[in-house]
Design brief:
The protein has four helices and no strands. By secondary structure, it is mainly α. The protein has one domain. The radius of gyration is 24 Å and the shape is elongated. The two termini are about 50 Å apart.
Length: about 150
């Protein structure tokens, strides 16, 4: 008797599952776009604040310009992710290289108070990240994802 009731209710259960699945997909996609928009807005806001700070200061140092490049790359990551739904890891590595370059310039400009090992460590980090980009490019060229 119970199998008859289950058989009778199966179309209703399938309909409810389809509605729940579609609603869940809509909510996830909506949250995804909202989060990307908020992240993009935060990047634009931070870049604008930094730019206004440079204008107020009356000059821009190389560190300031590199920070604007970091914001630019982060904006590109958000834009690419928005269009393709794929996280471009290479761009994140470019951001890390730019951040380490910015740190390296701060260390070099304050070389009187900097231990040389710190400069070597930062340079090693940049070299490691640059090598990882080469590996990623080689792998994506020879072993493309489907």
């Amino acid at each position: 008797m119970e199998s008859k009731n289950t058989h009778f209710l199966q179309p209703l259960i399938n309909f409810i599952e389809i509605i729940a699945s579609n609603l869940g997909a809509l909510l996830v996609k909506s949250f995804h776009y909202l989060a990307l928009f908020l992240i993009g807005a935060a990047i634009v806001w931070a870049a604008a604040v930094e730019f206004l700070s440079m204008m107020d200061k009356g000059s821009a140092s190389i560190e300031d310009i590199l920070l604007l490049f970091i914001y630019l790359e982060l904006g590109a990551v958000v834009g690419i992710y928005f269009q393709t739904n794929h996280m471009p890891v290479r761009f994140l590595i470019y951001v890390a290289i730019t951040a380490l370059t910015r740190l390296l310039l701060e260390l070099v400009f304050d070389w009187h108070n900097t231990a040389y090992i710190n400069i070597i460590i930062v340079c090693g980090g940049i070299l490691l990240l640059a090598t990882s980009i080469l590996v990623l490019r080689y792998a994506s060229h020879h072993y493309p994802s489907k």
